[in-house]
């Protein structure tokens, strides 16, 4: 009965509003629906849900030998949330942009719980070009894809050559016990994951948080790629105030939305417990 009513209403809407002059109205309806599904909620910390969710799990993983990887740390705001809401957790803050890293370094150089790495993270050791706004001293949009600056933001990109490493090697060399990974690298997230695959499998990292947005168009990465790679995890889109929306079973129409959202992957055994 509900399905028949929905079909009737959708057909009626299409007949009435399926015309060019109603396009803006239809776009507004879509945008409102997306926000309810955890998409494009970048207005505040509470609306994005990233920080409320993170706070809710920090107590579960807080321990003197545990480490959080903040990949794409920028100036360290996520790192600061970890420090403010835990007693023992250590943070490895990874930031490739030389100018942004200066500010990150000055902020945390004297903090014993933070390790600072001026490198990019990827699936192989290399030297890659990092692109950002030419008129700024570092931004949150810096990306290994030139299109992320010039096409998405319609400005001329400046270019820096930066070292990139596999985080598996960083973890092994420093004997880290990783309990949470946050990745926000403007389209390069899947490369980071592939370079951390051994750690994820061996240590059974409980939580992996990624930002998924339009930059994944330039990297050619779908949410399905993440879900297949992390098949021992349950994927959730983070809603306002840290609420979670499950993304299985996989439905392309609702999953492959190329604009800002936070996706958290939680080990299946934790979801079931």
Task: Provide a descriptive summary of the structure in words.
With 273 residues, the chain is α/β, with parallel strands linked by helices. The chain is 40% helix and 23% strand. The chain has 14 helices and eleven strands. The strands form two sheets. It has an eight-stranded mixed β-sheet with strand order 3-2-1-7-8-11-9-10, with helices on both faces. A three-stranded mixed β-sheet has the order 4-6-5. The chain is globular and about 60 Å long. The model has no long low-confidence stretch (mean pLDDT 96).
Shape: globular
- Uncertain parts: none
How helical, in percent, are the residues?
40-55%
Number of strands: 11
Strand content: 15-25%
- For the report, how would you describe the main beta sheet? 8 strands, mixed
First-to-last CA distance: 35 Å
Radius of gyration: 20 Å
Mean pLDDT: 96
Judged by helices, strands and strand pairing, the structural class is alpha/beta
Number of helices, counting only DSSP H or I runs of 4 residues or more: 14
Oligomer: single chain
Would you list the SSEs in sequence order as H and E? HHHHEHEHEEEHEHEHHEHHEEHEH
Q: Which strand order spans the largest sheet, edge to edge or round the barrel?
A: 3-2-1-7-8-11-9-10
